[in-house]
Amino acid sequence: MGLLYYCRALLRTGTPVALLEIDSPAHTFTAMVTLLRMYAEVDSLAALVRNTREVLSLIIKLWVFEIWHTHLSTQLAEMFRDSYPPTSAGLLHFYLFTRRDPDSYSAMLDSALEGSLGRQGIALVALEHIRRNTVACTQYQKIPVENMRTNLLNLTCLHSTPLHSLLLSQNSVRIVTEALVVITSAPFDSANAETTADCVQQICEYLHKYIASDGLNSLNQSLEVGLLVGLLKAHPWLSVKKSAFDVFTALLAAHVPRYFIYISVLRQVHKSIDIIQQLGLKDAMPEVCLEVWHAFEKYAGVRLNLASAAELGLASCRGSECSEPSSMRCSGCWEAAYCSKACQMAAWSTHGAICTARMHGRQNGIPPDLGEEDIQFALRVAQHDFEENKAAICAKWTDDGKLPISAGIDYSMFPPTVGIDPPSVVREQMSSDAAIYTILPQGTTEKEYYMCDLGLTRGAGDPDDETIKVVIQMVGTQPVPAFFRVN
Ligand SMILES: [Zn+2]
Ligand SMILES: [Zn+2]
């Protein structure tokens, strides 16, 4: 009854102000959270809450108010000076997300917050819950890993709803990486080792799923805030949980190296390897983790060798007529880099529209096109790899023995695969009997295709094997020509 009383007070106007109409929002909040937590312990009461729409609506609102109301958070912080204040995150998880039916909880979120917040607002609240945990990690003696675990679980559940792209567009990957860095910077404490290991595993799984799903942007942001340092510092918890170690390995052995064809990624990796060296992080690592890291470093080294020192330095300023090294980024797209505020302001008249379009695209799950610098470098890598694989490709052509002939390297796979079956988008563009192509990943679903037509067409009466011989000879002796985009 008490709860329903509060619910009605809260839902009376339907606006967030209602909570503040009750004399002390922090006391009310604490009372409600505590009560609902107690109910969760008793099956019949928990079932009652789950089946009472008004109360579920209240829980969702509490979860939003906790973030949205500075007055409430200030009061809570005052009431709980030395410990982490009570939070509604666990209630949301227990009463809503254990329904295991994304459509039903998505509809409930929508109806509870109807008109007051919008989906973008809900995405922001979910991420702010995690960000506050991250800040709290440096604030309190005892790290709130328990809460962090719950918030990470909530985030994962929200990804099964239409909020998916909105979460990514609000830089969820960076926020989750920051959490990893903070958690793994704390000393190992056996009292919370299991929970921390759970967090590490969840973060690694999250990154494995989403680190590049809206393009290179999120991967680069993650690397920039210390992804590699965070992963290397995670080893004490990886030994607590074997499954966490497996995701760690998948990230470093394949998932991140797949993007080593892009200079923007290599630049960040190069910087991180330096930092890891300076911090002496490798010294403390156990052999199993070290093996994974050495393979990563070795593979990075192969690609870093193809880049010049200038390319690996700071990106140059996007300001018009300025090519100074830039150390600041546009906070809207996190893509354009500038040397100064003045350059950014001057460039806004042209960058503004691009920046807004990019953000809009990300919100709708469309990864932005690859940057020119990244494409040029990736095509250079492709040319290099073709040169290395020439003999194998020519041998495959000889064995296959039919026209048209083509060969390509698919970098959306890891390790990259060399094949002689062109995808239809390339085949449609072939105007002669021979072509080579390459496939570059952009996000986890999009790909960009590049090809060069070798310009050889079978003359009248020429048998297949004659043409094949000519192509093999041409490819075997000449440098790989430049590629052009076909999709
Ligand atoms: Zn921008
Ligand atoms: Zn500049």
List the helices and strands and how they pair.
Layout: H1 2-11, H2 17-21, H3 25-41, H4 43-50, H5 53-68, H6 70-79, H7 89-96, H8 102-112, H9 118-137, H10 145-158, H11 164-169, H12 172-185, H13 193-210, H14 216-224, H15 227-233, H16 235-238, H17 242-255, H18 263-279, H19 287-304, H20 309-312, E1 328-329, E2 337-338, H21 341-363, H22 372-400, E3 405-410, E4 417-419, H23 424-429, E5 434-442, E6 446-453, H24 464-477, E7 484-485
Parallel strand pairs: 3-5
Antiparallel strand pairs: 1-2, 3-4, 5-6, 6-7
Helix pairs in contact: 1-5, 3-4, 3-6, 3-7, 5-7, 5-8, 5-9, 7-10, 9-10, 9-12, 10-13, 12-13, 12-14, 12-15, 13-17, 14-18, 17-19, 18-19, 22-24
One zinc ion (ZN) is lined by residues 317, 319, 322, 324, 338-340, 343.
Please characterize this protein's 3D structure:
By secondary structure, the chain is an alpha+beta fold. It has 2 domains: 2-277; 372-485, no CATH class. Helices cover 62% and strands 7% of the residues. The protein contains 24 helices and 7 strands. It has helices at residues 2-11, 17-21, 25-41, 43-50, 53-68, 70-79, 89-96, 102-112, 118-137, 145-158, 164-169, 172-185, 193-210, 216-224, 227-233, 235-238, 242-255, 263-279, 287-304, 309-312, 341-363, 372-400, 424-429, 464-477, and strands at 328-329, 337-338, 405-410, 417-419, 434-442, 446-453, 484-485. The strands form 2 sheets. A 5-stranded mixed sheet has the order 4-3-5-6-7. Strands 1-2 form a two-stranded antiparallel sheet. Helix 5 runs antiparallel to helix 7, helix 9 packs parallel to helix 12 (172-185) and helix 22 (372-400) crosses helix 24 (464-477). The longest helix has 29 residues, at 372-400. It binds zinc ion (2 copies). One zinc ion binds at residues 330, 332-333, 335-336, 351, 355.
